[in-house]
Write a structure and sequence with these properties.
elongated, five-stranded mixed sheet
């Protein structure tokens, strides 16, 4: 009888450990990050950088995500439950600088040039976040 009790206790502990591990992995997989701000704010925080070069009238520069992104500079959310991200200023347009495609936003959520206003309404979370765990929006 003691053997069965010991085995039952061991199985209960193993099940609890597995449940905890699955919960942690699920939370890790579903955690995504976003940062919203002006170009100067995001540059100062090390979130974006200008890349490319310009010589006289040739070439050009563009805003890009920084190479080493620090999750602490972002707001963390669960992509399965947070499909609407409010923007700080409803009177401004915001451009997505990161790799997410505006095609996975709700119909009419983005302009033809890919800018959003009011809030970011994500219609297809898995597809939207598949390109990057980091969403960066720059105020226009």
């Amino acid at each position: 009888m003691d053997t069965l009790t010991t085995e039952n206790t061991d199985l209960t502990a193993t099940k609890a450990a597995l449940t905890d591990t699955v919960g942690n992995l699920t939370a890790y997989k579903n955690t995504v990050y976003y940062a919203i701000g002006t170009e100067s704010e995001l540059k100062k925080q090390g979130i974006i950088t200008k890349e490319g070069s310009k010589f006289l009238v040739f070439g050009g520069t563009r805003l890009e995500p920084a190479r080493n992104l620090n999750p602490e500079a972002f707001t963390a959310i669960d992509k399965t439950t947070n499909t609407k991200i409010p923007l700080p200023r409803t009177d401004k347009k915001y451009k997505i600088i990161s790799r997410q495609s505006p095609t996975y936003l709700a119909v009419g959520a983005a302009t033809k040039d890919g800018k959003v206003t009011g809030s970011v309404d994500i219609a297809q979370p898995e597809a939207f976040w598949s390109a990057s765990k980091y969403l960066i929006l720059v105020e226009d």
